[in-house]
Each structure stands twice: as C-alpha cells, then as structure tokens.
Specification:
This is Ribosome-binding protein aMBF1 (Putative translation factor). With 111 residues, the chain is α+β, with helices and mostly antiparallel strands. 53% of the residues lie in helices and 13% in strands. The longest helix is centred in the first third of the chain and has 26 residues, at 22-47.
C-alpha cells in the first residue's frame, strides 16, 4: 500500500463522524501541553550547555525532578515554572488555544 494513502485511526474515525468525548480531548490537550513544556525545557537547557544535574542545582530541584519535567511526566506548578525560567535565565511564554499549545523560553538579554 502506498504510504501517502495511510491515515491515522483518529482521522479515519473522524471522517466517519466519530467525535471524541470532551474528557478525551481535555486529556489529549493536557498531554500536548506537557510535551511542549518538556521540549522547551530540554531545548533551552541544551542551548545553555547544562546537564540535568546542573539545571537542577540552579533551580533548587533534584535531577530526578528535572528528568520527570523533560519526560513530560510531571505537571509543573506555577512556582516550578518560575524556578525553571529563572534557572534557565529566560522568560517563559505559554500560548494556549483550542487545539494548540506553544511553550517558549525567551533568553534574557545579556547585561
């Protein structure tokens, strides 16, 4: 079969009129947000040349907690977001929409 003709199961069921229950859509959005945040933390940490242990030390966290955040296994609280942004020497922008989550660390300008 030609790969271009393959569709995700979700797309096929949507084409047949299936609509996800609201709780499933909410769970999917929460997972996307956790993954977007995890990716943003990882990319900013790598851009700074920091290990997880070094970021953890800067943020007053354990390396295991940083690993859980980067693995999208932890739901960050507002204080944790602030600590990570400060440790990553950046501001944090989070844009939420119906079907899109955008998380970006904006580096502070050099003093």
């Amino acid at each position: 079969m030609n790969h271009a003709r393959w569709k995700l199961t979700r797309e096929k069921t949507a084409a047949l009129g299936y609509v996800e229950p609201p709780e499933v859509r909410a769970e999917r959005a929460e997972i996307r947000l956790a993954m977007a945040f995890a990716k943003a933390v990882h990319e900013r940490r790598k851009a700074l040349g920091l290990s997880q242990a070094q970021l953890a030390e800067r943020a007053g966290l354990t390396q295991a907690k940083v690993s859980r955040v980067e693995g999208a296994d932890a739901v960050p609280t507002l204080p944790l977001l602030r600590r990570l942004a400060h440790a990553l020497d950046a501001g944090l922008n989070i844009a939420l929409d119906e079907d899109r989550e955008d998380v970006t660390f904006i580096a502070h300008p050099a003093a």
